[in-house]
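Before relying on records like the one below, remember that each one covers exactly one chain. Contacts with other chains, cofactors or solvent are not represented anywhere in the record.
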Amino acid sequence: MIYFNPLFLYVIITLNLHHSKTAALKIFHSINDFKSTKKTILTLGTFDGVHVGHKKILERVTQNTGGESESLVLTFFPHPRMVLEEKSEVKLLNTLSEKIALLEETGLENLVIHPFDETFSKLSAHEFVKTVLVDQFHIQKIIIGHDHRFGRNRTANIDDLITFGKQYDFEVEQISVQEIEAVSVSSTKIRKALQEGNMALSNEYLGYDYFLSGSIVKGKQLGRTLGFPTANLQIEENYKLIPRNGVYIVQSTIHQKTVFGMMNIGYNPTVAGEHLSVEIHYFDFDADLYDHEISVSILQFLRPEQKFESVALLKEQLEKDKKTALYFLKK
């Protein structure tokens, strides 16, 4: 029997990302919580997915830091669209804990996660620059993308920021259009790829395999009767983007051992399922994972969810899916 501790989810995520551990990231849950006597080299944004485009900006921040300055990222939770757009159904690539784990691997020194609300959204561009960037963060330099907008109703742009920089003595470095277009990636493109089941494209844009994390709960245990016992993943955060319904090849790291398997996302129409479920069948693995946290990296889409005329035909298809998955993994 395998037991997990609260630290295990973090270990799983960081191992799956194939990153080496860097210096500890200091995390602050409000702008006002950040205290430092040093100047800051900073960037800001939602950083949903922490994809390869984001990393281009984050790398520039850490490369500019040293001596009397330290790196800082300002991000927000909830996502601004969840607050400002009525009945917003935006789905995010990362839960907050997942985003923290991803940012921790970039070499940043400080992460400020500010609660985004309507009051904060009404700060004028000048108020934001003076009270947040200058007075609180002691900004030395800000590094941003070419299309960054900020302030109330997002009315201020890069030209306004440069003007503020001259007024308050800080540098503004803009990531050029050419550099961003060379990467040609955005969170929106990744969401679209995931909704289409295009794991090759989404994982290329992310720079890591898209993953789901949550706790293992008891299901109907139908898979066990078919010879395909499954771990039922319960994802608490309803804003997390779940890829297209269907069958996928996946992997997890359990007790520092890589375990492969296949995962079904859907409603189990063959047995008249009523609720969306995420079920993983691991190959050559048998352990009690109930009530434990686990992370599942999604490698490849196999096929859409479909309804079979009988449970026997479903089992036959599962055997074919497993054979296809093992062939893919062997390659």
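The chain has twelve helices and twelve strands.
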